[in-house]
Design a protein that fits this description.
Length: 382
């Protein structure tokens, strides 16, 4: 059954918010035959992750999704959809909410929350919040357990990843598209993070690696830290820097499907925020998370909540080394020392990353969970 969906995205974290909502919108159309409109207020960020978008058009259809540039001049002629998603608590236009309340059949109003591994999420997932105008808003939490909404995962994603990894030709062709040439024996790492004052400690350690390392860095906020370490004013896509065992190659910012392939190419991935954090997990390789910083260290509680789940099954030594490294990566501890103490467990952590990926794939994916939630609400109303 085709249902209409309106998804609202107010971009806060550069590409994380729009990255999640754009993947979700695409999947609802491609895999569930839904009618989806995506409203995004930051058109520049959207066109970065989907370059095929026309920068001058305020409304366009892309991959089956009707995408709107959401501005303060809201077109009140738009009729609210059957399902309305406010992504990450972004406030909806007042005139739109009024129109929602006037519908004969009230829409399903969902507040799609940020991803969290904290225990309280299961208790709040799916709860209703009555609104003054008679509508109900439901809280929907992505997560890592069967009691949450799951993670974004397209159908056949892990099979496509495996096929890509097994094809040397396909992998090499992709790297050639990036302008990357891999030397014999090099291990591939990727780095996508926020600004990191302590990054120089990690880069110093990579120059002393037992095996040569090729570090692939999509253009982004961390480039200033990398440039200062390398002694440059700035670094641009195409630039290559070499010091001892480390080569650094700056690559252009990639659209989402290409970013997945980049992660699949690498032996280790550094991710940030929410969207790339999830994709690094589906890559099935050791990874690290640069979590979005919050006041009063609230982000570190979320980091540890995830680690409490993720480290289950590892040896105590590997688990402790991973926790120390993740804390250091997020500004708490000596990053160079943490990396040295983590490296002996890479083999165990590689197997663990694939096992974690497989266990998460046993849960329902986020798009399917949302569709099912709507069907359940229809049944409940009837």
């Amino acid at each position: 059954m085709s249902v209409s969906w309106d998804i609202f995205c107010s971009v806060v974290d550069n590409y994380g918010d729009i990255g999640v909502t754009w993947r979700l919108a695409r999947q609802l159309v491609a895999e569930h035959n839904q009618e989806v409109r995506l409203f995004v207020d930051d058109w520049v960020s959207f066109t970065r992750i989907h370059p095929e978008a026309a920068p001058e058009a305020s409304t366009q259809r892309l991959l089956g999704v009707e995408v709107h540039h959401w501005t303060s001049e809201w077109p009140d002629i738009l009729r609210p959809a059957d399902v309305v998603i406010e992504a990450f608590g972004c406030p909806l236009p007042a005139v739109y909410v009024e129109a929602m309340a006037c519908r004969t059949v009230q829409p399903l109003w969902i507040n799609l929350e940020y991803l969290s591994a904290e225990a309280w999420v299961e208790d709040c997932h799916g709860l209703a919040s009555p609104q003054p105008n008679g509508l109900k808003k439901f809280f929907f939490f992505p997560g890592f357990t069967a009691g949450t909404g799951g993670l974004l995962r397209e159908h056949g994603l892990l099979e496509r990843r495996q096929t890509f990894r097994m094809s040397t030709v396909e992998r090499d062709a992709f790297l050639v598209q990036l302008g990357v040439s891999v030397r014999p024996g090099e291990r591939l790492f990727s780095l996508f993070s926020y600004e990191m004052p302590s990054l120089h400690d990690w880069l110093d350690e990579l120059t002393k690696s037992a095996e040569p390392v090729l570090l692939l860095i999509p253009e982004g906020r961390v480039l200033g830290n990398v440039a200062r370490w390398a002694g440059y004013d700035r670094l641009m896509p195409g630039d290559v820097y070499h010091r001892r065992q480390l080569r650094i190659h700056i690559i252009p910012f990639r659209q989402q499907d290409d970013y997945d392939r980049l992660l699949w190419c690498c032996d280790f991935n550094a991710a940030r925020g929410e969207e790339s954090f999830i994709r690094a997990q589906w890559a099935g390789q050791p990874f690290i998370w640069h979590i979005y910083p919050q006041d009063k260290r609230a982000h570190m509680l979320k980091l540890d909540a995830f680690l409490d789940r993720y480290l289950v099954g590892l040896s105590p030594a590997a688990g402790q080394a991973t926790r120390v490294l993740w804390h250091a990566w997020n500004g708490e501890g000596s990053l160079g020392q943490a990396w040295r103490e983590w490296m002996p467990y890479v083999g165990e952590l590689t197997a663990h990353a694939e096992s974690w990926c497989a266990r998460q794939a046993e849960h329902n994916d986020l798009a399917s969970a949302l569709v099912h939630f709507h069907v359940e609400r229809l049944s409940y109303s009837a």
